[in-house]
Structures are given as structure tokens and as C-alpha cells.
Amino acid sequence: MTEAVADSEILRGRCPVSKFASDFNPFDEGYLQDPYSVFARARAEEPVFYSPEIGYWVVSRYADVLAIFRDTESYSATAAGEMIKPPCPAAMEKLAAVDFVPSTMLVDEDPPLHTKRRRVLRKGATELKAAEIEPFTRRFVTECLDAIVKHGAADMVADMTFEVPALTAFVLMGVPEAEVARVRGYASRFALWIWGRPSDDQQVALAEEFAAYLQYARAHVERLIEQPGDDYMSNAIRAWQAAGNDQVWDRTYLASIMQSHLYASHETTTNAAASGFKTLLENRSQWDMICGDPSLIPNAVEEILRFASSVPAWRRITTKPVTVGGFDIPAGERILLLTGSANHDDAVFEDGDAFDIMRENADQHLAFGWGIHHCLGQALARMEMRVMLEETTRRLPHLRLVADQEWTYSPNTSFRGPDHVRVQWDPAHNPVPGDRP
Q1: Pairing mode, if any, of strands 56-59 and 48-51?
Q2: What is the pTM of this model?
Q3: CA 209 vs CA 91, 182, 203: distances in Å
Q4: Please, what are the domains in the chain?
Q5: Residue 314 forms beta bridges with which residues?
Q6: Phi, psi dihedrals of residue 76, rounded to the nearest 5°
Q7: 267: Cβ–Cβ under 8 A, 6 or more apart, which residues?
Q8: By the 8 A CB rule, do 406 and 278 touch?
Q9: Is 335 strand, coil or helix?
Q10: Which of 379, 381, 344, 393 is nearest to 364 (CA)?
Q11: HSE on the CB side for 34, CA within 13 Å?
Q12: Euclidean distance between CA atoms 187 and 173, whole angstroms
């Protein structure tokens, strides 16, 4: 038994931690490559266990994960945005240089504060708003395809799934197109900063990016206070002003909204769309199905979100003693909810480890969380994924994955998507005549 395992036993008075539990490490390369085999074993053998490696209780079955999402009195969201690795002194210096003040976000707030703030913010993230933005998204996708369609090879991440959500997010947040090149990279590695274990040197570089974006966010908020537009951030500012300013939030929180919502609406959709292309092209018959019948795409999006969730784990902290899956867990304990595992649970999804775009209950997935913290941007994400698939299948139905390519993933607990999805095709066979060389 390792020292960490022994310490955990003294603290919890439990039976010895199993080898499976002591070996659990979401930063291991094997886990990053294939977390789903670990998830399957957890559901079957130890649906609830304590991980001494990360200091979290790990919960893997759908029913338990859903019950925790539902019980907002026993489980606080305040752990959701905690840094896995606290900033090193040099990184703290970078943050101090821009007068960084820690601020909560919707994802790590509890009622009643969360309720008041979410009620205001959700008005700008409706299905109607997604419909208003869809023409912009379709233009961005078209421009991405125009740039590659005659080349015969591309990286769907660099050439589309990174670009489209970023550009769409900037429209939503009121960022002028002229500033897109400056801003687009700021949020791209936020997952490693919060949910990873970067080296000190990496932390310093990430802190510099974080500080640069914080300065931009503050300036952007001030500009919108003076000249509001018809965008999400401007609406948040109007709500702030209408409610007597600091009664809802202050300028620090407005900058936090700008930061967190850009990341949430960018990186998560990038990962989901990238995983979607990878999964569909690995299941060629189902790619061919949506090429032949675009009406299947909306449910294909739901199945992608279920099968290859871009947020395979989320966090909570107990506010009082609880019992989960037969285990008594004290107050103040951190819990890692394996939503990606829950989405493969055979108790809810028949043959859950199989990808099936015709699955009737695919939309019961927990990819967007559940309940009061259900993702505000889910309608936007669904729209972006749908449009990317609609346009790509129309213009490049003969797309295929480059054989034997290496798959890499950001080493963090909670966000997952391939860094690259390299594809190729024969431009001479492009179905749209104007797309041929």
C-alpha cells in the first residue's frame, strides 16, 4: 500500500483501497487515450471509490451522477472551478501584475446567488438566440471549407472545429471581427490551467495568457458599458445596470463572465465537434447515412455528445455527510462525477459503448450537466455542431481519416477532444462543381 493510500485509510477508516482505485489517474496517457475502458471497469467493479492520487471520490454510474446533480443541498458546485494544481509563485506574480482578483463563475456558484445570476444570464442564451446567430456560424463554416476544399487534406481541428466556435463565440460576446485574431488564442488552453497539472513553466505561460485575456475582457466590458450592442455581454451589462449595478454583480464579475463564457462556448464545442468528426469517420456507415440523409444529423449530434462527451467529468463537494452507492462520505469531501461514464451506462443506454446515431434516447446524456447548472450554451453548441456537419457532408462526403494518425489529448480531468483530426479526400471527386480544382 502506498503512503497516499495508507493516509487515506487513516482519514476515512475504510477497508483497504483496491489496486484499481489506487491506480486511477486521469492524467495517465493510457487514461487520456481511452478513458472509457476505465469507466466500464469502474461501473462494473467499483462504481464509487476514493482515489488517493487526486484526493477525490469517483462516481461512475448514471443514477448516482444524476442524483448528485439533483441534490444541490448536499453537494455544492464550489469545487467545479477549483484549480487542480494551485498556481506556483511565478504564476501568481503574473496574475498579481494585472491585479487579478479571484471571482466565481456560474459553474461554481450555489443558490441563491447562482439562481439570481443565472436568471439574468439565461435570457441571452436561448434557442432563439442560437437561431439568430446561425447565419454567422454557417458563413464561418463555409469560409473554412472554401479554404480547404480544393486541397485534398486538412486538420479538421485547426481548419474548422477550433475556428468556428471561436468566431461564433466572439459574435455572441460582442467582440469585433477586427479583434478576433488578437483574442482567439486566449481561451484555448484554459482546461490545462484549471483542470490539469501543468509544470511550473507551463503554469507561468498559461498565467501570462490568462492575464492578457483578463486585461482584454476588462477593456471590452468598459467599452460595452459605454457603447452597448445587441450581444450577450451587452445584455448582461444592461441587467447589471437595471438591477442597481452591484446588487447583481460588479465589474470584476462582468470580466469573469466574459472569460468563462468565451471558454465554455469555444473549447467545449471545439472538442465535441472534433470528436464528432473522428467518431463518425471511424464508423463509416453512419457517416454515409448522414451524408445521404441530413435529417439524421440532429440526433447524430446527440449521440456524439453522449458517446464522446467533451466534458467527461465534473466536480462537486459534499456539504454534509452523504451516502453514495452504499459508501458513507463525510462533509467537505470532493467528488469527481464521471459524466462520460454515466453516458455509457447500459442501465440507461442499451449497449452503451456502441455508437449509434439512430439511438432513440441519445438525448438523455449528461454532456451538458443537469438541473440548475445545466449548460446555458447547449442550444448554441448543438447548432454549431449541426451546421458543421451539414455543410461538410454536403461538400466533402468522401472525406476520410488519415490512416494510422496519432491521437493526442490535453492532460486534464474534465475536458476531452482530439488535438488534431487529420483527413484527406480526392478534390476531383468533390460533388459541388465549383469545389473541384
Answers
A1: antiparallel
A2: 0.93
A3: 11, 12, 10
A4: 71-311+367-435 (1.10.630.10)
A5: 337
A6: -90, 150
A7: 165, 187, 188, 190, 191, 310, 415
A8: no
A9: strand
A10: 344
A11: 6
A12: 13
- What average pLDDT does range 34-61 have in this prediction? 97
Maximum alpha-carbon separation in the chain: 70
In the block, cell 478576433 appears at: 180
Provide the grid cell at 381. Answer: 453548441
User: What does the pLDDT look like over 365-388, one tens digit per residue?
Assistant: 999 999 999 998 899 999 999 999
Of 224-228, 297-301, 358-362, the one with minimum mean pLDDT is 224-228
Residue-wise burial string across 19-39, b where 16 or more C-beta atoms lie within 10 A, e elsewhere:
eebbebebeeeebbeebbebb
H or E stretch at 324: strand 322-324
Nearest to 176 by CA among 112, 135, 234, 237: 234
Residue of 231, 237, 127, 223 whose CA lies nearest to 173 = 231
Rounded Cα gap, residues 144 and 127, in angstroms: 24
Under DSSP, the state recorded for 196 is B
DSSP state of 155: E
Cα(81)–Cα(75) distance, rounded to whole angstroms? 14
- State how far the Cα of 30 lies from the Cα of 54, in Å rounded to an integer: 16
